Fold this sequence. Notes:
- By secondary structure, this protein is α+β, with helices and mostly antiparallel strands.
- 29% of the residues lie in helices and 31% in strands.
- The protein has a six-stranded mixed beta sheet.
- Strand 5 and strand 6 form a beta hairpin.
- The longest helix is centred in the N-terminal third of the chain and has 19 residues.
Amino acid sequence: MSEALTATQAAIHGLWETHLASEFAHKDTDEALATMTGNPRVTIVPTMIGGSGRDEMHTFYSKHFLNQIPADMEIVPLSRTIGETRVVDELVLKFTHSIQMDWILPAIPATHRRIELAMVVVVNVENGKISSENIYWDNATILRQAGLLPDAGLPVLGAESAQNMIVPAPLNQLLKQPR
Length: 179
């Protein structure tokens, strides 16, 4: 991090990094929940998957998220903004849809297709613990890459949307497609 952080921002940064490690490195439900308040909420906005309260969060983490992270999952961080009560991460996820992933494509069996998506995560913190996460992405780009949205005439892109966040590409390509 290039900017000096306040003590509160540094604590939030450490909390979020600990939480991410509990999810993606350790895949440990109890460890993830230990970083959260007594009544946390996670909302994956495009699919309305997640949990509210410790019981729902335990079920979500153990049955629909941590056990459904593909082995080749790559996270490319783009930006992080840390305030006094919030962290906002912008990133790109890359993976092969090699297992069912209810948090990305609910109840859809593995398509074995490569998926790349741009994602924004908004994390709220209360009293030194994560109180909520709101996670956003363009679901149509995932459906296109998984072969579930085959109509090429729709104004939807695939992996190129996420790739553009890493290496800028020409814009306005959808405006140039004949309809």
